[in-house]
Amino acid sequence: MANLSKIVDLAGLDWKDVQRNVISLKLGYHKGEIKPRFPIKIDRTLGLIIGHILGDGSINRKYQQVFYSNSNKSLLFEFQNCMYDIFGICPRIWMQRKTRWEKRLDKARLIKRASNSL
Questions:
Q1: Most buried residue, 63, 90, 93, 112, by CB count within 10 Å?
Q2: Bigger pLDDT: 54 or 41?
Q3: What is the mean pLDDT of residues 105-113?
Q4: Cβ contacts of 16 within 8 Å, gap of 6 or more
């Protein structure tokens, strides 16, 4: 996003025009793609994402990705849905049992299947 900010400033563009016309942004070493819904508002949904990351999540330094781990299925769903609503992506989530990670999940709906296989 820092590069986008520099381009907008150097080109003398209006951020509202950029927000209306950006389809997606490619980020990170592996060229991941997000599809943010602009304007990003400071609201309950963004607050939930921040709270989840600060409480039970992290930003992986190597991959520059957010991930979240928890043993509570409803919190995993909540985090996944908030990330999709704002950024258009399914985040990395981990099902956790007690104090250790059990299994990485691509989607929160896989929790029941993963729980049965452990």
A1: 93
A2: 54
A3: 68
A4: 39
